[in-house]
Amino acid sequence: MTTKILIVTGDAAESLEVLYPYQRLLEEGYEVHIAAPARKKLQFVVHDFEPGFDTYTEKPGYTWQADMAFSEVEPGAYAAIVIPGGRAPEYLRNDPELRKILKAFFDSDKPVAQICHGPLLTAATGGLEGRRVTSYPALELDMQAAGASFQDVAAVVDGSLVSSRAWPDHPVWMREFLKVLRATAPVT
């Protein structure tokens, strides 16, 4: 039986933050499923920086079919979870089904990889209290309000929680996540 990894996301997720871990985990030999509020074609976005702008810009990105709805997820069937950023976490944190899924991963101390705005989801479950994390730097105050110690570095490993700032940090983030994953949930 292949070890399964869950990615939770929705419309307006950052394309690279969904597809890079998806492909990297497949390459490693894991079975990867994408869950969203509903089984549907998701519209991802591309965040980039333009000269003269105070913040990032957003453009339409790739589309991708969700494998399942949050209501269909059995957390016990998955060895780890990946939480991409983009705008999706801003509204997904209000989804009670998703909060139940995330709580199950934290309660079981299973590996959790979060990036960019993804920590807004774990903050909504109380999963960041007393933890060391990073996120998109603009969320520093949100991370502190959630009880976390914020560090503005490429990746932070706190036990089974691996966080990162944004897609430019992918190589460091996935390298650290894979160390945790190989130790706790090797490919079978």
UniProtKB/TrEMBL annotation:
It comes from Streptomyces kurssanovii. Residues 4-179 form the DJ-1/PfpI domain. This is DJ-1/PfpI family protein. Pfam families: DJ-1_PfpI (PF01965). The lineage of its organism: Bacteria, Bacillati, Actinomycetota, Actinomycetes, Kitasatosporales. Belongs to the peptidase C56 family.
